[in-house]
């Protein structure tokens, strides 16, 4: 599985100079296979949900795939089905392996352990020639602990690259499993509308799926620097990032060029705990001043869900309550369409159709982003910035804040909202946010 990740980043694979390479590589494979301890856990969980899967499909029929009433299909033209020959083959092999192989691969000899601890990997960096970068030094820790601490420190944090390799592989593996399970309800043809949130960076051959509220402004700044559109990430204004037109969207290319990039570029996405993401979206777009959103969404929401709205509330669309926002989200007959800030990630980025090489998590944004930057051979001086563009005075939406907002909802509303984002919870392995959800 490690080999797969390197296959995804081929320039790395060829440049890995490892002492006693055979053993270490052997270990790499073993380490990757150790992972499923946690994956097994996930699959047990999923099995207990097995009975729910038909229900899930119903849920999607009723409101999961409720789309915005925007003329989305206008640009849509059919692109022939994509062929992923090796992905397909790998998928079969991998799932067969992950079932049986993990039992005996858990044996890690003391010698292997010692070797891992004492042999740093030496990587030839693409851009800066040889560098005995400690960035890729093998982790001295074997624990595959969940990545839940938010850390933006870049240097030392990258020590655990073994850990990262295996965690990233596990995420991709889980995605494959979920996609295989739900393949009946997933389109097999990539259309232009499937790639409309993908941004292109041709120099490093990258495709980034933008998910709002998961640090996308900072990633777009970084892409601008990678593309040579800016000299550093520090002084790029929010508006320049989003409206400057410096980054090309994949949908703006010809069909042939889209296909070529999808097949040969590294594709990545960052995701976030779904409930935290919508609380963050609500605070940003509806709670805080925002004429555009208050007009477009606030007005219809207030007029449909508030019992005795004041003249002023109806006129300005300001003051939408969290509960009203959720009523709108859960309404099959929404008075206004969905929006990218609260759309499900699987609807924005189509991870079953577009096979992402890297699925990062907002909860560990700094560490994972910088790990990715090193993987693609970005200049060592480039790290992801940590700007908070929107309402910088506000505290970042945290678990605590999320709980506060959710306490305003009924249990049924929470359950329905969980159902609404269920595929995101499943695909990106976020655990149930409240104990009383099923
Ligand atoms: C899923 O998350 C749990 C903890 O939340 C973690 O232990 C496990 O390794 C994760 N599984 C995958 C496949 O990422
Ligand atoms: C990398 O390390 C090796 C051995 O420790 C040394 O011989 C070599 O000069 C180093 N290369 C650089 C670029 O520091």
Which percent range fits the helix content? 40-55%
Major β-sheet annotation: 5 strands, mixed
Reading side by side through the largest sheet, how are the strands ordered?
Answer: 6-4-5-7-8
Q: Strand fraction band?
A: 5-15%
* Distance between the ends: 32 Å
Structural class: alpha/beta
Short synopsis of the structure:
The chain has 438 residues and is of the alpha/beta class. The chain has helices at 2-8, 10-15, 21-34, 36-49, 53-64, 85-100, 110-118, 161-181, 216-226, 238-243, 255-264, 274-287, 291-305, 311-316, 322-330, 345-349, 365-375, 399-406, 411-420, 422-427; strands at 16-17, 122-125, 129-131, 198-201, 206-209, 248-249, 266-271, 358-361. One 2-acetamido-2-deoxy-beta-D-glucopyranose binds at residues 38-39, 42, 146, 170-171, 174, 429, 431.
Task: Explain what the structure shows.
- This protein is of the alpha/beta class and 438 residues long.
- It is 48% helix and 7% strand.
- The structure holds 2-acetamido-2-deoxy-beta-D-glucopyranose (2 copies).
- One 2-acetamido-2-deoxy-beta-D-glucopyranose binds at residues 38-39, 42, 146, 170-171, 174, 429, 431.
- One of its GO terms (biological process) is proteoglycan biosynthetic process.
- It is an enzyme of class 2 (transferase).
- It is a single-pass type II membrane protein.
- Its main location: Golgi.
